[in-house]
Amino acid sequence: MAPGPLAQVLRQLPTATDENFLTVDLPFADAGVYRLSDECALVQSIDFFTPIVDDPCSFGRIAAANALSDIYAMGARPLTVLNLIGFPTCLDKDVLVQILHGGAEKASEAGAVVVGGHTVEDDEPKYGMAVTGVIHPKDLITNAGAQPGDRLVLTKTLGTGILATALKGEVISEAQMSDAVQEMETLNKTASEVMQKIGVHACTDITGFGLLGHALELAQASHVGIELSVNKLRVYPQVPELAMIGLIPAGSYRNREHYLPSVVNPKELQPEVIDILADPQTSGGLMISIASKKVAALITQLELSGCAAYEIGQVVSNCPGKMIIAN
């Protein structure tokens, strides 16, 4: 759902009062956290979607990596997963087998156990996972801890939504977006482990609300401003041209409508840059808010561990809950 209508629905729901529900006052949290004891809390999230690539096994790997991402953004360790499947009766069951094999590969890589799942017949394939992780409550990382002076580091390239739209429109082939497919299949496990080792103030993963939406949610949750250096963003080579000819996913328009009013100076952005910022990412990277004195160590360790890492902006005290555009 678009962020605006979704927020309208959620505002009408009752609020839990359980003192062990640790994220009850964090409406923008990437996952729900429930304390079991003073030393252990459950971290839970769920995600599923329709295919964005043609290869079933690759789709399974991407969907699983995407579902696991929220757990890693919170600094937690995935423990168990449940498969969620919608599948048409007209498709060969071998397609479903391949999807589930891909998902199982990523669950195993994450060290999580597939403990079951649920299937329904549907007109279009859908796949994802409900994931449960564990963490010590004191080690929890949220998107509400960013501090003025922090630097913002992103761990994956942008533009996957635009590429997937171009693939569906048969403008590009899956081979032409192979780098993006490989990165979408990559777990945020290593990036999460590195940020925990270095020590960070806040983190969120960049998924369906795009960099624009997730950065603004971090700003709002932390009561700070975000100064984004758009010239430092890394984008897949074909993406700007594809955006200029209008190959934009529907989610990008919804994200732009909801979040762009919170950008202080949007007129300084080219239309295709706005489209990239609002582009719904699938299995995107972690956006990490870290003290400036630690940013070099974080980027170095991420790169040594095989992760992409680049600075995209900073946290400021002015314009809380807003995004400021910088070069």
What brief labels describe this structure?
327 residues, alpha+beta, 60s Ribosomal Protein L30, Chain: A, Phosphoribosyl-aminoimidazole Synthetase, Chain A, domain 2, 6-stranded mixed sheet, 5-stranded mixed sheet, globular
Query: How big is the Rg?
Result: 19 Å
Compute the number of helices.
11
Name given to the CATH architecture of the largest domain? Alpha-Beta Complex
What is the makeup of the main sheet? 6 strands, mixed
**What distance lies between the first and last C-alpha atoms, to the nearest angstrom?**
32 Å
What pattern of helices and strands is seen along the backbone? Answer: HEEHEHEEEHHHEHEHHHEHEE
The low-confidence parts are: none
Provide the domain count. Answer: 2
Q: Tell me what portion of residues adopts beta-strand conformation.
A: 15-25%
Give the full name of the CATH homologous superfamily of the largest domain: PurM-like C-terminal domain
Major β-sheet strand ordering = 7-9-6-10-8-11
Level of helix content?
25-40%
Strand count? 11
Structural class: alpha+beta
What general form does the structure show? Answer: globular
What is the averaged pLDDT score? 96
CATH class of the largest domain: Alpha Beta
What name does the CATH topology of the largest domain carry? Phosphoribosyl-aminoimidazole Synthetase, Chain A, domain 2
Topology of this protein?
Elements: H1 3-10, E1 32-37, E2 40-49, H2 56-73, E3 77-87, H3 93-110, E4 113-121, E5 126-135, E6 151-154, H4 160-168, H5 178-185, H6 189-198, E7 202-205, H7 210-222, E8 225-229, H8 239-244, H9 250-259, H10 271-278, E9 286-290, H11 295-304, E10 310-316, E11 323-326
Parallel strand pairs: 3-4, 8-11
Antiparallel strand pairs: 1-2, 2-5, 3-5, 6-9, 6-10, 7-9, 8-10
Helix pairs in contact: 2-3, 6-11, 7-9, 9-10
